[in-house]
Amino acid sequence: MYKGSIVAIVTPFKDGKIDEPKLKELVEFQIESGTNSIVPCGTTGESPTLNHDEHARVIEICIEASNGRVPIIAGTGSNCTEEAVSLTKHAAKAGAKGVLSVSPYYNKPTQEGLYRHFKAVAESADIDVILYNIAGRTAVNIEPSTIARLASDCKNIVGVKEASGSISQMQTIKDFCPEGFHLISGDDALLLPILSIGGTGVISVAANIVPKDVLAVIAAYNAGDIAKARQAHYKLLKLVRNLFTETNPIPVKTAMGLMGMCSAEVRLPLCEMNPANKERLKAALKDYGLLK
Fold first, then answer.
1. Three-state secondary-structure class, residue 162
2. In the chain, domain spans
3. Helices (H), the chain
4. CATH superfamily for domain 4-223
5. Cα–Cα distances in Å, from 48 out to 18, 134, 141, 269?
6. pLDDT tens digits for range 45-96
7. pTM (whole model) above 0.90
8. Which residue out of 132, 221, 253, 278 is catalytically annotated?
């Protein structure tokens, strides 16, 4: 469930509202492409701008559309512990197989505060919890010692989505945490390096548009064909660089709009791409063979 290519799926909008039929289409596309799991309401799904009803509905749509064919790992993080608990309880009741819980943002809790927050989330429902460590957005790093403490004390905290960018830190997490604890890349560009240190996969932005190419890196690595995995990784890397020229998910949604997959619409405070960056993205999509 927490291995392979896990797509951080976008939330498609139409005239300011969630485009429910399109979201169902995107779930179907991912399943048909072989994606291993789907994460709705993450960063890429613009969770900060979804109201509570919308947040719940996006998760429910993904669960309904997947119909048990792939696990749904619902984004349920918040900088308010009570709210994170409420969202986690909803996800469990709705039928999600796991939740992705980002570290509280803006509050800047201490490591003890982070421990208590995630412990409360884990104890709130009978569901697997994946921590989400991305200090670049939250202002606080979940230290490896805190992750190890949580993994030891809360048996349903089963892994971490690591987006610190530090391979050194990720190795420390692997060293400190129990066998079977999942180290999942939170960065497409670090997929191959993380696999090489014992990671189990990636929660991917790029998989929104090239799910089979993300899978190809993992399949080659798991088959022991490191040269093939490296070739697939560097091919993907050319595209990934252009998916992060502006704040995620602006570029990937722009790409999806150009490819006719869904509207490029994002919600404020995000806005459309800078024209020059959009032209560079368009050129990258053409070079990759995704646009004519």
1. strand
2. 4-223
3. 20-33, 52-66, 81-94, 111-124, 135-138, 144-153, 167-176, 191-196, 211-222, 226-242, 250-258, 275-288
4. Aldolase class I (3.20.20.70)
5. 14, 15, 19, 10
6. 999 999 999 999 999 999 999 999 999 999 999 999 999 999 999 999 999 9
7. yes
8. 132
Residue 132 catalytic?
yes
Pick the catalytic residue: 161, 221, 253, 278?
Answer: 161
pLDDT tens string 235-247:
999 999 999 999 9
Quote the tokens at residue 289. 């063979």
Residues 6+ apart with CB under 8 A from 52: none
What is the rounded CA–CA span in Å between residue 159 and residue 244? 25
Q: Tell me the one-letter amino acid at 245.
A: T
Q: Residue 255 and residue 261: Cα distance in Å, rounded?
A: 9
Q: Is 4 left (phi over 0), alpha (psi -120 to 50) or beta?
A: left
